[in-house]
Known about the structure:
66% of the residues lie in helices and 0% in strands. It is mostly helical. The chain is globular.
Amino acid sequence: MPNSQLSGPFILTKAKFYDKFVELTHDHNQKFRTIIHSINQEELLAITLRAFKGAQLRVSSILSVAKRFADLNGTIPFEVSANLYKNFLKATARDTGIYTKITFAEYLYYSIHYEQCKETYNAETLIPTIYNPSQPLGRVMGGHIALEIVLLNVCQANARRLNETEWLDTNPDMACHTQIMHILLRHQLLTFEDVQEEFERIMLYVTGFVLDTVRTLSSRHTPPASTPET
């Protein structure tokens, strides 16, 4: 449940905000990491296929959020909206490829390109709902960060499967995300409750999808019960 002591006057400094943000994300990150590294290769490939499709869709949505920040000019001072815009592009470099040699989508594509992937079912994509322009910015940021953690963990699981070092020491850019959200909070454009609710909703949804994938693939391999002879 959201903690009402994470908004308004209770968050006085960016450092305090950062601590609370890390506290929110850490346990969910560790739990999802444990699950994604405990599944077998067939299950990981099915999840990677879905993650690849999500990563592709996420790029245009991220650019629309960057525009949304730029369009805040007038609501907030120009230098503040410019700061938001630049920090968001920096924080999403692994999606857009602006500062990195390989993006989430490129690595996920590479991970499954030579594999036989089984789509378990056509799961509803989260991208349109998370990045919907009518969504409060707190919910956009909460969902965005949850997806960042999910994509990063799927990339790292595939790196281990392929005996590669790419991604293994990579973490979400918590400093940039903190900077963005703390600015929005100070200008009353975000509440931490919205961030927390959407972050936890997306992590729960994706974890459920992973577990459903495991169950679906397991049921396909379960031999039918033998009929007793009469």
